[in-house]
């Protein structure tokens, strides 16, 4: 899949194009419907299917205090989009200047940069332009002037309500990983580069890889079963999300890779959180007591992962 950061970078911009637009945080089942519709419509008319997304999240620019914790960073999002079979992804830099564009200016930019544009596919709540002043009807009106169509995908519903990134974040924050997975279509996963920690786990005989995931959606403190991807190989993982009384910074995730030995410092891991094992509320009398508990946790995690395989 081609990844570009400006419309004018696209080869042969006059090539027929169907474009799905949205931030697509998490690439949940609702997003997958939008993007799948874009892909299918492009195939019907012999066009290319592209996704337009934005970086960073618009609220990080226009209202930082209200910006949400992210379900997926940009590299993970692009990978998920590629898995959906589209031809390309356009990552638009969301700058303060871009935030001031009117809906009309945004459409003019699209039409000028992609003269082959035939159709835009969006979700029913997508908004665009300065202060989110453009809605679905305004997009349809503007599209009619420029000679292309707009298709609005029906929402995917779960539990009687439309699936949304906000609902997935809420489920993750409550530790309802099964609920989040049902809306995502897969377990909630986080990705990060391993940073140096206090190496306490190594001293106890259970070395951990430490990820600083500040700014990303994580479940409550506790012990979790996980699957970990490292260099396209997968391992079982015992995840520890420490509670604040331990002095850990917010956003720290520690994971012990099962049946692995080696150095992972500064390497990238993707951690799929599969199940909650226990809360982080037990206090230990000594290190031997802690080591025994870690061993029990790992045995329990192996059983959980075996049942889910």
Description:
This protein is of the alpha/beta class and 309 residues long. 33% of the residues lie in helices and 28% in strands. It has 10 helices and 14 strands. The protein has helices at residues 29-45, 58-62, 74-83, 96-99, 103-113, 136-146, 165-173, 177-184, 200-204, 287-308, and strands at residues 2-4, 17-21, 48-55, 88-93, 117-123, 149-153, 157-158, 161-162, 189-195, 209-212, 222-230, 233-241, 252-257, 268-279. The chain is elongated and about 75 Å long. The two termini are 29 Å apart. The mean pLDDT is 94.
The number of helices is: 10
Shape: elongated
The H/E string reads EEHEHHEHHEHEEEHHEHEEEEEH
Can you count the beta strands?
14
Average predicted confidence as pLDDT: 94
**Low-confidence spans:** none
User: Sheet with the most strands?
Assistant: 6 strands, parallel
Distance between the termini: 29 Å
Percent of sequence in beta strands: 25-35%
Radius of gyration computed on alpha carbons: 22 Å
Keywords:
33% helix, alpha/beta, 10 helices, 309 residues, elongated, single chain, 6-stranded parallel β-sheet, 6-stranded antiparallel beta barrel
């Amino acid at each position: 899949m081609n990844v570009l950061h400006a419309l004018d970078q696209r080869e042969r911009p006059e090539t027929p194009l169907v474009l799905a637009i949205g931030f697509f945080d998490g690439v949940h089942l609702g997003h997958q419907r939008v993007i799948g519709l874009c892909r299918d419509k492009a195939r019907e008319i012999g066009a290319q299917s592209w996704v337009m997304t934005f970086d960073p999240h618009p609220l990080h620019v226009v209202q930082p205090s209200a910006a949400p914790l992210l379900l997926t960073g940009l590299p993970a999002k692009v990978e998920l989009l590629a898995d959906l079979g589209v031809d390309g992804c356009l990552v638009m830099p969301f700058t303060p200047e871009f935030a001031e564009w009117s809906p009309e200016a945004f459409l003019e930019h699209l039409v000028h940069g992609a003269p082959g544009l035939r159709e835009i596919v969006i979700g029913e709540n997508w908004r665009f332009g300065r202060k989110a002043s453009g809605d679905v009807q305004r997009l349809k009106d503007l599209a009619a002037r420029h000679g292309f169509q707009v298709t609005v995908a029906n929402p995917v519903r779960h539990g009687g309500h439309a699936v949304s990134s906000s609902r997935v974040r809420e489920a993750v924050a409550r530790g309802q990983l099964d609920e989040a997975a049902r809306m995502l279509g897969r377990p909630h996963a986080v990705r990060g580069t391993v940073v140096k920690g206090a190496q306490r786990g190594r001293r106890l005989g259970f070395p951990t890889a430490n990820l600083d995931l500040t700014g990303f959606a994580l479940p409550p403190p506790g012990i979790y079963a996980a699957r970990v991807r490292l260099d396209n190989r997968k391992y079982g993982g015992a995840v520890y999300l420490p509670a604040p009384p331990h002095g850990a910074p917010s956003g720290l995730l520690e994971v012990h890779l099962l049946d692995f030995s080696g150095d992972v410092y500064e390497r990238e891991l993707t951690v799929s959180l599969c199940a909650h094992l226990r809360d982080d509320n037990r206090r230990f009398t000594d290190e031997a007591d802690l080591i025994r508990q870690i061993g029990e946790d790992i045995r329990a995690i192996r059983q959980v992962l075996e049942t889910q395989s």
